[in-house]
Amino acid sequence: MNAVPITLAPGDGIGPEITQAVLRVLEAGGAEISPEIVEIGEAAYSKTCLDGISAQAWESIERTGVLLKGPTQIREGRGYLASTQALEIRLGLYASLQPCISYAPYIPSQFKKMDVIVIRENEEELYGDLEYRQTKNVCQGLKLISLPGTYQILRYAFDLARSCSRKKVTVLSKDKVMEFTDGYFHSLLEELAASYPELKYEHQSLDVGTALLTDHPENFDVIVIPSLYGDILSALITKVSFSKPGMSAYAALGKKHMLFEAAHDPAPALAGQNLANPSGMLLAAIYLLIHIHQHEAAERIHNAWLATLEAGIHTPDIFREEQSLHQVGTLEFANAIIPHLGMRPRHFQAVNYQQSDSDAFFAFKPKPPQTEIGERTLMGVDIFLDYPAHNPEKLAHKLKNLNAGVLDLELISNLGVLVWPEFIPETRISDHWHCRFMHQEPGLSISERDILDLLTELQAQGFDFIKTENLYAFGGNPAFSA
User: Fold this and answer.
1) Rounded Cα–Cα distance for residues 443 and 85 (Å)
2) CA 376 – CA 410 distance, rounded (Å)
3) Nearest-5° angle of CA 220, CA 221, CA 222?
4) How many angstroms from the chain centroid is the CA of residue 168?
């Protein structure tokens, strides 16, 4: 077999030393790879790469299609972007996959039984980097969720569950609060689940589901979740399952490119001391081997790692006198794995990777055809004002007296709370006002000219409008929050 070219970014902090340890194990385990070392992280930031990714790295990733990445520092400041986020956005890495498994009693964990896969949508929601300061006191971030993106991530979750003989798919969202954005995850769940009759499925409110997960993780199997929620949940579940961050890895999937990464920070305080746990980076490399169809090497290395844990050979972060036998450093841990190559664990379930696992874990799921939801009709407009007064009734009086044509003021809210036509004096008021205008005759549509005339009138009367949002119905059904 010819060695497969891969892009390798050791990263920052402990990244170079755990990378060195992992490469030693990969070579001994029979991995046929040809790493191209590139700069991602602080070195690239220092060379004015705002995303922390060098031009050489982008060129290599585009050519190899596969990146094994160590932990990297995030440069703070305006204009800088986290390297992992930049990779996900630019390469179209639509899903992240993070297995969370308890290795008790050999590794400290709150639970003896936990084997959960968290699948997070990567491209949408609040990570679109669309934020605005609209008034002196109020900022806004746009949450964008699409039908094709939601369908794609849910379908991937169901296909993965089926291929890996999992039993249940759980969706976590806040659809009762965010009916249209998070609502996609709930409504499409019902539609897609019909094609997978052998799988159980459920939707849980994010807060309730998270509480249940941290109490009884054995009741969960495959979890699929929107981007921001998933980012938080992944960190939480990693802490619950491993107790130590050095044990975690994740993969990000796209149509042409794949990212495999140690899912922990670069721990600069430990750098250069031979104390770091390379397990997260090693697991990321194992997922990479599965993707490039080197299943025998992946299986051999994974089982050797499990056998090493069972043998009580542990790095300082997971060493416990009552359970561990030998405390070793980063490179010594790697060296300890090598004699276990060819062995299988006795307590843990041994892994058995096959050709089908590459398709199960890392196959791209195409986007569905456009769903027909009916004709779009313009029904009204939400206009947001920067207005310093704190009396909703006076503002409403001024707006009702505008020469607004066919449009009429229907409601006013402030920071998402209705303040007109009903107002509770205790409600906190800001300078950011949301004013909804609809046709004077309920149910009738309006035109864009009606909106332009209203904005002209607002400007003439001295109002400072900072944003507008058209209100549509699709197929006669209102497509905006009440």
Assistant:
1) 43
2) 21
3) 115
4) 20
User: Residue 460 — pLDDT band, cuts 50, 70, 90?
Assistant: very high
**Domains present along the chain, CATH in parentheses:** 1-91+248-358 (3.40.718.10), 110-242 (3.40.718.10), 376-478 (3.30.70.1570)
Residue 125, pLDDT score: 87
Cβ 241 vs Cβ 114: under 8 Å: yes
Q: Checking phi first, is residue 44 left (phi over 0); if not, alpha (psi -120 to 50) or beta?
A: alpha
Local confidence band at 373 (pLDDT 50, 70, 90 cut-offs) = confident
Buried b (16+ CB within 10 A) or exposed e, 445-478: ebeeebbebbeebbeeeebebbeeeebbbeeeee
Selection from 282, 290, 288 nearest residue 263 by Cα: 282
Q: What is the pLDDT of residue 371?
A: 67
Rounded Cα distance between 150 and 188, Å, is 8
269's tokens: 């305080």
What does the pLDDT read at residue 89?
87
pLDDT tens-place string over residues 421-432:
999 988 999 999
Integer angstrom CA distances of residue 290 from 37, 247, 271, 293, 321? 21, 19, 29, 5, 35
Backbone angles phi, psi at 325, to 5 degrees: -110, -40
Residue partners of 482: CB distance under 8 A and separation at least 6: none
- Tell me the pLDDT tens digit for each residue of 64-80: 999 999 999 988 888 88
pLDDT band at 364 (very low <50, low <70, confident <90, very high): low
Is 407:440 a contact under the CB 8 Å cutoff? yes
By CB neighbour count within 10 A (0-12 exposed, 13-18 middle, 19+ buried), where does 404 fall? Answer: middle
Give the model's pLDDT for residue 482. Answer: 82
- DSSP state at residue 345: -
- How far apart CA 97 and CA 219 sit, in angstroms, is 19
Type and span of the H or E element at 228: helix 227-242
Q: What's the predicted TM-score (pTM) here?
A: 0.89
Contact by Cβ (8 Å): 146, 121:
no
Residue 32 is which amino acid? E
CB neighbour list of residue 76: distance below 8 Å, 6 or more residues apart: none
Alpha carbons within 13 angstroms on the beta-carbon side of residue 272 total 2
Residue 355 clears pLDDT 70, i.e. is over it: no
SS3 category, 434: strand
Mean pLDDT over 183-203 rounds to 92
Q: Counting Cβ atoms within 10 Å, is residue 179 exposed (0-12), middle (13-18) or buried (19+)?
A: middle
Q: What is the mean pLDDT of residues 104-121?
A: 87
Judged on CB neighbours under 10 Å (0-12, 13-18, 19+), 82 is middle
d(CA 38, CA 58): 9
